Amino acid sequence: MNDLKKFLLGKITEDGTKHFGLKDPHYFLYVANNWHDDHVDNWRWREVESHQDHHGKVLDMAAGVGTFVLNGLHKGYDVYGVEPEIWKLDYIKRKIKENNYPDWYNDRIVQGVGETLPFPDQYFDYVTSYQTLEHVQDVGKCIDDMLRVLKPGGKLKLHAPDYRSWFEPHYLLPFVPMMNHKLAKIYLTLLGRPTSGLDSLNWTTTPKLLQHLSRHHGIRYIDLTQLYKERNITKIQQDYRLPALLARLVYRVQQVRKMFRQETHINLVIWKSTS
Questions:
Q1: pTM higher than 0.85 for the full model?
Q2: Are 70 and 89 in contact, with CB atoms under 8 Å apart?
Q3: C-alpha to C-alpha distance for 44 and 54, rounded to whole angstroms
């Protein structure tokens, strides 16, 4: 393991231990491996490519350690990223230098926050935010500014935890949906977990995001979580030759079996009207 990857692993371990009380070194190494390798076939890009959204100008809101942006730049895509955390930006600069990536890569990931993106109006064809909205200061302002920098006819992809679920993905714990923060702090304290991570989390949900999006005119959306649910139910119905009601019951049983160990997601695609 080289020094740069050791630095990344150390930061992931430090943050996970300090703020969420995580202790499994195998988990930290798994995350570090995924974040560090910017040449691996990235599933996020596969999704973008499958819908032909890689041809325009792309923004990753909260670029993290730059895996998505760097992978896109290697592919020759016109991609940018914005990231607020200094250590992550330092890591990216070191990575670009140590791997002899083109110097202009440094211009493609800038410091900033989602509430006030450092880009002009209608600049991007595709904007994506992955596992980020639950951490921002103001979810509504982030959505507004992502729509501001999106061109008419462009597409916004939002992916984040949906806190109507019974699992919290940062603490990796069963969690009451939308748990009151005071009760959540008592719960975490009883488990011997730090509560500082809780202070960084918003209880994001699909209905909350859709309620905010309803204030914007000239947009349409699709809820991919709901779409995938209906596809899975149809597959169960076809595979086992079940009536629709029974297929839905089987699907529900499958979900209950993993509800305390797997998060559910906000997975929205929003189109901005050209008119």
A1: yes
A2: no
A3: 11
